[in-house]
Structure formats: structure tokens, C-alpha cells
Amino acid sequence: MRLVTYRKGASKPRVGAVAGDAVLDLAALAADLARERGAVRHGRGGFPKTMLELIAGGADALAAAREAAEHGARVVERRGLDGLAEAKLGVALARARLEAPIPRPARNVFCLGRNYKEHAAERGAEAPPHPVYFTKVPESVLAPGGKVVHHAVTKELDYEVELAVVIGRAGRDIAQAAALGHVFGYTVINDVTARDLQKRHGQWFKGKTLDTFCPMGPVLVTADEIPDPQALAITLRVNGETRQASHTSKMIFPVAECIAVLSQGFTILPGDVIATGTPEGVGAALGKFLKIGDRLEAEVEKIGVLANRVAAP
């Protein structure tokens, strides 16, 4: 499934699934399906109200979401997009306002630094012998289409397209061979970075976690649709110009190893997000920092394009 958190107009955020040109309201569809079967379920019933609740609900919640999505597909087939909207069971994708799939992660977003050899080299560094982790605060998460603020504190604003992993099952000291079994799904993150703040403060946290510096989305693709996360093209464009073009097979530490090492002596939880590093082609290496008005398109194969613009403070 291609899951989203979305709004229609001024409505509260809803959990949906993208199916063609439609966004299916999974809670409403679950309730509608229950009514068809003669069960009494008022409103949105006991269906998870947020993406974090859906992820934490485990296999049962995911099965209920799949069943609701299948019901929604049948509604669209019988009644079309207008019928879906009239029944308040979903909305046309063009009329939905997408939020980040997890608008506010429960914990910090865990990130990998220098996880592509060519990127490490272009920044004048050796490939690390072990995964290098840092975090971005939940408040830095930005929706697809949201504005990346060019804060006055930086003159060297940069981009980094990354495959992001969303954990679905808790664990500690996870074996690498079992690590992918803990994955709920995958999305795209643009690890926006103030390079001058990195240099000024001598670490990565401050320069990477300013407000709006973690665009995420546009969808959360469940793990069954991406059985091999090391088989994906990864690209970033600025104003239509391709700046980064690589492949997740080039990661120094593959997704399974990133999860296994992070979990050593540390419990990872459902809803945790791990951004797995960026390939070569960043603005700092090219001498092309971002400017107000620039359009960013971060793309990962099988997930989609995360588009944002740079805006003044």
C-alpha cells in the first residue's frame, strides 16, 4: 500500500491510501465495510486515527487497513471518484493536501552520515568503518509541498535526498539477517543542511535540524512493495537540474546493517524513522547552494517525488 496522512480543506488529518487518482479514507471505509457486514460501528470506529497508531497496531491494524483499501477500490470501480467523495469515503488525489506521512515522529529522526563512499569523498572524508548516526528533531519535519525556510542564520543551504526507513516492530540487539522483518515501510527524506553551521559548531545536529529541515513524503510505501531496499534509484533535482543520481546499492552500510547496529543495546520502536544517507552531488561539493525560490525534487524509485520550495524566513 501507498499510505498517506492527508487533509481535505480544513479537516483534521486523516490516514489514507493512494489508489490511482484517489485517496481512500481508511477509517471511513473500515466503518462502511463494517456496516455492510451488519456490524455497528459509529463514525470512524476503532480504526487508528494517526499513522503512528496504525504502525503501532501491528499486523492486525495493517490487515484492517488493507481490507479497507480493497473496499475503497471496489467503491471507486462501481461509483467513480465522485461517488467516493459523495459518500465521504475519500477524495480525489488532486484535491487532497498531503502532510508528511508521519507528521510528527514520536522520537527524533535517526540519520546516517557518509553512507555513500562517493559522498564521503566529495566532502573530503574517508568512508567510515562503522555507521555514523545523528538525529533531527521531530519539529523539523515538513510536508510535501511545504516551504523550506532559508533561515537568516545560514548562507550555505544544501539538500540531501535519502531513502528513509520506518520501523514497524520493536526490537533490541536485532540480528542483521532479521532486521528487514522490523520494517513497516519506506518514504523519502530531504536532509536539508546548513553547511556553515556544521562547520561553525563542529558537529551535524545544529546545522541539520532547523525548522523545516526535514521534508518527508509524499507517501509511506509498505515493506511488501519494496522487498529489497538496496535496489532503488535515488535522485534529486533543483529547478529541474539533476544534481544527485545514484542507487541504494551503493550504500556503504545497507539498510539491514544500519538497523542492526542502531539496535545494539538500544530499543527501536514502531514509528521510528531512519534516514539512510545521501549520495554524491550535494551543493557544497558543486559550489551551488540553495537560493530563495528554488524548487527541490527528491525522488526514490517505487516511492515517488518529494517536492518543496525554498522560501524566505
Second-tier CATH architecture of the largest domain: Alpha-Beta Complex
Unreliable stretches: none
Taken as a percent bin, the fraction of beta residues is 25-35%
Number of separate domains: 2
SSE string, helix = H, strand = E? EEEHHHEEEHEEEEEEEHHEEEHEHEE
- CATH level 1 class label of the largest domain: Alpha Beta
Structural class: alpha+beta
- Tertiary shape: globular
Most strands sheet: 12 strands, mixed
- Rg measurement, Å: 20 Å
Q: Kindly report the CATH topology of the largest domain.
A: Fumarylacetoacetate hydrolase, domain 2
Number of helices: 8
The portion of residues assigned to helices is 10-25%
What does this structure look like?
There is one protein chain. The chain contains 8 helices and 19 strands. The chain has helices spanning 26-36, 51-56, 58-86, 117-122, 195-201, 205-208, 255-262, 283-286; strands at residues 2-7, 14-19, 22-25, 90-92, 97-98, 109-113, 132-136, 141-142, 147-149, 157-158, 161-167, 183-190, 193-194, 214-222, 233-238, 241-247, 273-275, 295-300, 304-311. The longest helix is centred in the first third of the chain and has 29 residues, at 58-86.
